[in-house]
Amino acid sequence: MTEQPKNILLVDDDEATNFLNEMILDEMGCAKSIHIATDGQKALNHLNAHFNDVDLIMLDINMPRMNGWEFLEKYKSLDKSHRAKIVIIMVTTSFNHDDKEKAENMAEISGFLNKPLTKEKMSALLEHYFDDQEV
């Protein structure tokens, strides 16, 4: 696995999930920075202000105000050159087959994980999407 720390944006409305995910990422030492957005709109605001500082977005589906799917629709309209380097992983409790199928058919989504996030899942994800890349 690459040793390069990543700038990670966690997008989830659940405080406990954010706490656990942040703890896992901290323990792994894989994050240069971790920013938490509790809905899609806050995530878009963060991206607009810090596009060059985001390598990975861990995106929940079911959130108030703006859910993961609504976030992705708005995300598509952002400058393509900024979006090119960002990996988006859906991380959700949804076992709805339609959600997984929809995620697999969206070019912006690189992967789909069911909660809870574990060190093993995160390690495999980083190795798959970031190995041998300098970020």
How would you characterize this protein structure?
- This protein is an alpha/beta fold and 135 residues long.
- It has a domain at 55-96 and 105-135: Rossmann fold.
- It is 43% helix and 20% strand.
- The protein is built from six helices and five strands.
- The protein has helices at residues 15-28, 40-50, 68-76, 80-83, 97-104, 119-130; strands spanning 6-11, 31-37, 56-59, 87-92, 111-114.
- It has a five-stranded parallel sheet with strand order 2-1-3-4-5, sandwiched between helices.
| CATH top level class name of the domain at 55-96 and 105-135 | Alpha Beta
State the share of residues found in helices, binned by percent: 40-55%
* CATH fold label of the domain at 55-96 and 105-135: Rossmann fold
- What's the architecture of the domain at 55-96 and 105-135 in CATH terms? 3-Layer(aba) Sandwich
Oligomer: single chain
For the sheet with most strands, the description reads: 5 strands, parallel
- Strand-pairing-aware structural class: alpha/beta
- Count of beta strands: 5
Shape: globular
Tell me, rounded to a whole number, the average pLDDT: 89
Lateral arrangement of strands in the main beta sheet? 2-1-3-4-5
Task: Give me the CATH superfamily of the domain at 55-96 and 105-135.
Answer: Response regulator
Given the structure, what is the number of helices? Answer: 6
Low-pLDDT runs: none
Termini, distance in Å? Answer: 13 Å
Beta-strand percentage? 15-25%
N to C succession of SSEs: EHEHEHHEHEH
Our Rg estimate from Cα atoms comes to 14 Å
